[in-house]
Every structure is written in structure tokens, then in C-alpha cells.
Design a protein that fits this description.
about 190 residues, 4-stranded antiparallel beta sheet, 1 helix, alpha+beta
Length: about 190
């Protein structure tokens, strides 16, 4: 299990039974309020979002070496997911919970913005799922200086990407409620 602790400003892990607990990432100039995690089991990396530093970083789960992966000024990152070597990230915007404009970003494996989907409402987390199918190869539009994609997209799978993201958001909310319930049971000593 992996989890972020925004109060103690660290990211930890342990076995399912609670044994071998260890801290992977300690508070630093890059990690002040960890808000989201995504585990890349193939790449052996744990990606993390930090709301206060406006950063997304990764940590090697074996060596514990960390690096900054992506930074976006005036952002407040919350949830993360990985799908086909791309990272999907929710952003509450510069005013955190007060912002009227919120986004879900798709970030390529080299740390560049691939797409930005504007959403209405508070999007805490995202989960991406797609049926395996053959996709036409297309070149995504280049991001502008402010890391947004124009509405004139050459991506023929744009509607499918939006459907994938929306399903992911719903699943993410269900997972978040499940984790919160588990934490309550653990704190009450009912789950061991």
C-alpha cells in the first residue's frame, strides 16, 4: 500500500498487513502538501502531486530517488492516474476550492502537456479506463505557452478521450469514498 500524508508532509508505504512501513518521500522544497498518487508498476515509479508546490514528481520505489516531472504555475493538483505511459491529472486551479475553472490534464511520458479538458465542479481524482482497440495514429496539437490546447484539435479520438476521463472521474470518486471508509474502520480498530 502507498499513501500520502499532507499533514506530516510525506509519502509512505507498507505491506497489506501493515508490516515493513517506510517513508519514501520526506517533506522538502518539492513536497509540502502531497495530494495525489499514481503507481507505475511497470516502470517501478510512484508519481505524486503536490498542491502547494504546483509540482508533479516521481519516486523510484526501489532506490527512493525522486525527481520533478512537471510544474504548472497557478495550479493545485489533486488526483493522478497512469494509462499507457501517460499521466492524467486533476487541477483545481489557482484559487483551489474557489476556482470556477478546473482541468484534467493529459501529460506525456516526457513531461509535456498533451491535452487539457476543462470541467465544471470539484474533481478530486481521476481513473482512466479504455477497452483495448485499434486506434488511428494522430499527431496531437502542440500546447501553447500556457500549456493549454486549442479547441481546434486534430485528435480524432477526442470524444473517446473525454469519455475515458469522465468514466475515470466517477471511478475515482468511488475509490476515494472506499479508501476514506477503510481509514475510518482502521482508526476505530475494526479492520486488521
Amino acid at each position: 500500500m502507498y499513501w500520502s500524508d499532507s499533514v506530516r508532509r510525506k509519502i509512505e508505504r507498507c505491506n497489506y498487513d501493515g508490516s515493513h512501513r517506510q517513508t519514501l518521500v520526506f517533506a522538502s522544497s518539492h513536497l509540502k502538501r502531497p495530494t495525489g498518487l499514481a503507481l507505475d508498476t511497470e516502470g517501478r515509479r510512484l508519481y505524486w502531486a503536490d498542491g502547494d508546490t504546483q509540482l508533479i514528481g516521481w519516486t523510484d520505489v526501489d532506490s527512493k530517488r525522486s525527481e520533478v516531472y512537471f510544474k504548472l504555475e497557478k495550479s493545485y493538483f489533486m488526483g493522478l492516474d497512469i494509462y499507457q505511459n501517460e499521466l492524467f491529472v486533476t487541477d483545481w486551479g489557482p484559487e483551489k476550492h474557489l476556482s470556477q475553472t478546473r482541468y484534467i490534464y493529459r501529460i506525456g511520458k516526457n513531461g509535456t502537456m498533451m491535452a487539457a479538458v476543462q470541467v465544471i465542479g470539484r474533481v478530486n481524482d481521476v481513473r482512466v479506463y479504455a477497452e483495448e482497440s485499434s486506434h488511428k495514429t494522430s499527431t496531437p496539437p502542440a500546447p501553447t505557452r500556457d500549456h493549454t490546447i486549442s479547441n481546434e484539435s486534430t485528435d480524432s479520438d477526442g470524444a473517446e478521450t473525454l469519455n475515458i476521463i469522465l468514466v475515470g472521474v466517477i471511478v475515482g470518486l468511488v475509490v476515494t469514498v472506499g479508501i476514506a471508509t477503510l481509514i475510518v474502520f482502521i482508526k476505530k480498530g475494526k479492520c486488521k
